[in-house]
Amino acid sequence: GWNAYIDSKKAPVNIANTSFRAVGINRGKHRLELKYEPTSFRNGLIISTSSLLLVLGFIFGPVVRKRYVK
User: Fold this and answer.
1) pTM surpassing 0.90?
2) Would you say residue 64 has pLDDT above 90?
């Protein structure tokens, strides 16, 4: 889930010494950002939001239908 960005451009993240992350950078002044962006978090957020909307639809759907459909 780790992503590296060098000067706002995505760069490959490598494994170093079996426990560390390494990013190759050319000489000079650069801005390096390491961000933990797991896809599992995004997928879980999508599934949880969808489930919440579905449950709310089951709870409030009959109330709305009863009130506005005669």
Assistant:
1) no
2) no
